Amino acid sequence: MFKRILWASVTAAFLSGLAVSSAAAETTLERIKRDGIVQIGFANEKPYSFKQPDGSLAGVDYELARAAFAKLGVPKVEGVAVQFSALIPGLKAGYFDVIAAGLFIRPSRCAEIAFAEPHIQIADAITVRKGNPKNIHSYDDVLKNPDIKIGTQQGSASRKDFERLGIPESQLVVFQDFPEVSFALKSGRVDLTTSTIFAANEAVAADGGKTIERALPFTLPVFDGKPSINYLGFGFRKDDQELVTKFNDALRSLKGTPEYEAILAKYAVSATDIPSPEVKIADICKQ
After folding, report:
1. Which of 76, 175, 213, 243 could cross-link 180 (Cys pair, CB 3.0–4.6 Å)?
2. Residue 24's pLDDT is what?
3. Taking 80 as the threshold, does the pLDDT of residue 124 lie above it?
4. Whether pLDDT at 35 is above 80
């Protein structure tokens, strides 16, 4: 009798272990297809992924992700709003499955997460107080005037560019997220903020042009003999390479379709903002 009980216990433990092992081996792609739900991390920044007044999600990254995942048999996309600096840590910790937040592809980020092929390319813009009182039209102007303060957000890719340009830390004021940066500019705590052209236009439109404006013209910084262009990509965990490949295929199949063109037009993304197929993530990560 004792042997039969012992054998039953061992068998149950073995089968339980197999079940746990099987569950642990399930990939993110398998899970989201089984559940029909994928969670995206976003920083609530227009025009990428943001909450509307009614609580629903919108944005070019959100809608492209939704369309691509629908092609993968995942009909529902849920958003997890976090501060910008928490996007990569949150992804790595498993709080969500994908970053869909207009994330710049940088070699330092490539070392931490996997990126899909770039889906948008865009230049930087700077936003200043109305009338541009400190006459800022380039980063050279910033370097020439140590009193100029730049508002930036924690974890921003621009921090690396400032370092390369020789802009000292004493001229930087770091905030947790973009709304805080924008408020600091409007209140006069900082003299300029940097962002993509999309974000700068959104900020000026939201302000109604009352207190801030884009600094025009603006001379782009030059790195390695080329004007600085930012490439944006969806972020994934390093061990989700199969999901990255499938997502790339799905996004590629969307290009040129009426659905794809409608999403771009809705958020004022033009054909010139789409990277050439020759631009590859592997090359960007090496730069």
Report:
1. 175
2. 59
3. yes
4. yes
Confidence at 199, pLDDT banded by 50, 70, 90: confident
Which residue shows structure tokens 């272990």?
17
Q: What angle do CA 165, 138, 108 make, to 5 degrees?
A: 35
Distance CA 237, CA 113 (A): 5
Backbone dihedral angles phi then psi of residue 194, each to the nearest 5 degrees: -110, 145
In a domain, 12, yes or no: no
Does residue 9 have a pLDDT over 50? Answer: no
Query: Is residue 104 domain-shared with residue 141, that is, in the same domain?
Result: no
Range of the domain at 250: 28-120+231-277
Q: Give the Å distances, CA to CA, from 29 to 32, 36, 162, 243, 281.
A: 5, 10, 38, 5, 21
- Cα–Cα separations (whole angstroms), residue 70 to 43, 265, 272: 22, 20, 26
Structure tokens at 252: 């590629």
My answer on whether 253 and 193 are in the same domain is no
Phi, psi angles (nearest 5°) of residue 102: 60, 40
Q: Are the C-beta atoms of residues 259 and 253 closer than 8 Å to each other?
A: no
The amino acid at 96? F
On whether both 244 and 181 belong to a single domain, the answer is no
What tokens were used for 151? 């508002």
Distance CA 25, CA 15 (A): 15
